[in-house]
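FAQ: What does the model actually see?

It sees only this:
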Amino acid sequence: MKKLFLALCTTVFGILANTTFAQEAKNFSVGAAYISGGSVYSGASSASRFAPSISYESDSYKISVQDGLAYKVLDNEGFKLSAALSPTFAPYDSTDSVALAGMTRKMTIDAKLSGAVDVVRGTTLKASYSTELTNEHGGSLLDLAVSQFFPIGGQPVIFSLGTKRHDSKLAHYKYGVTAAEANADRAVYAPGATNVTYLSVNTFYDLSRSVSAFVNVTATFLPSEATRSPIVSKSETVNAIVGLAYRF
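And it is asked to produce this:
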């Protein structure tokens, strides 16, 4: 439960850190959000709580819970490139359910390179590659996505469709079972590399020049390589976030 909540918080913090959208740049951002999300792991319940946030951004750097310390390598019109040292929270806690008892997963620090290209007006291609640095699993993640901006009834709405390519080490860390973790009810399992598809919808509304409200809904779909794991019971989850951000 706790690790699920922390994982959901990273999504919140990322949204809060980027709620400037098309507005003038602000250095500090603080906010709070109500987050609710499910878990794909057997016996693990969903989490619904409030989460606070704070971030700082300059012309060259951004510091936030999701991005950690990020450096803007390029920030031109139509193309952005950044490098970061980012935290990644553990996918679950051993106390989340009986099925996960005795399985220890920890937060890691990843080196991450991210880029975004505006293809046409309102359409953006995004890519990021991260690799784990703290010797917990030594895996890597490739995230590819396309986002499309639509004005619906005068309200800005952003749809994103993407896939996250987990290499075999990262997939094993999230969905696998080692020989030392196996028991009578939990067989050894190695999922191999997996592609996790996701679809998200975002919108925001300016309450004033400094305060914005935002909503995010993300659906995640696991492939069969992950769902065949003895610790996984669901093939999809939906997370919802509603919050406020204040920039100054």
